[in-house]
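Feature request, filed as a ticket because there's no other form

It would be nice if the structure record came with a short human-readable summary line next to the tokens. Right now we just get the raw output. Example of a typical job, pasted below so the devs can see what we mean:
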Amino acid sequence: MRMWRIGGKLISEEKLFTGIEGIMDDREAGATQSEAAELHHVQRSFVSFLETLGEVRRGSRVAIIAFPVSNAKEIEELAERYSIDMVLALSQEAREKIEGTGAAEIFNALMATMEELAQFDAIIVCASDLRIASSKRIFGPSVFSIELGKSPLRSDVELDLAQLEELICSLLENDDIGTQPRWAVGPSQKRTDEIVRRWR
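Raw output as currently delivered:
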């Protein structure tokens, strides 16, 4: 654990970052800046400063689901450049590994993923025509799609990154994809990351 000696004070890295994480978790859970400040014994202006310091972008929550694709890594890199909240890009090989796991495990992961995606304002689905149609029936107007081909797709398709980037940019510039960002209770980004890891 790193410590800093500043004048007569000894500053703990662990205590500092644990405190910041607690403030951000409370804000994400719906606490006002004033409520979070009071809970953590700091000034409201400090909470505002933290949010400004760490802000990546404003706007609606966006997810990308793409399968089966040959350029999953490039899709993830593109999503990272635009600070997309969730990206799940799978090759056919990765998909087949998942299909080889137990039915109960797949069902649990699927239910958790659908529950999480329901919190998103925009879901970009890059898949076969039938998978896109199913996604639209489940999530409605939140789904924006790039068709990779006719179902069934059992081999990798290279997703057009320029087309994906154009769609991402149009969504991030369009304030109408959601009324306001919907923040789920609790540390939603951690939960999202955990769900993505379950599919890998």
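Something like this underneath would help us a lot:
Residues 3-54 form one domain.
Confidence is low (pLDDT under 50) at residues 177-186.
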